[in-house]
Design a protein that fits this description.
3-stranded parallel sheet, 1 helix, 19% strand
């Protein structure tokens, strides 16, 4: 399963692994759509300090290994 967040004005897609029972964690950040990458990282790290954040262009190849601390920011527009 892939942890991802797509930063676009037109689409947003996020699928993240669920936390173990009794341990709710935030798994998507729709509020960062339209923000800069640095702003998005800052917001994500406030909610998930141990996040390993990857920034990738749309269409990039990605590994499919399961990591509960990974957040992928997929960027398909440049401002």
């Amino acid at each position: 399963m892939i942890n991802c967040l797509q930063l676009t004005e037109s689409r947003m897609s996020c699928a993240a692994p669920k936390a173990p029972a009794g341990e709710e964690k935030k798994t998507s950040w729709p509020e960062v759509v339209g923000k800069s990458i640095e702003e998005a990282k800052e917001i994500i790290l406030k909610d998930m300090p141990n996040a390993d954040i990857d920034v990738l262009p749309a269409g990039s190849a990605m590994t499919l290994d399961f990591r509960t601390n990974r957040v992928r920011i997929i960027v398909d527009t440049v401002a």
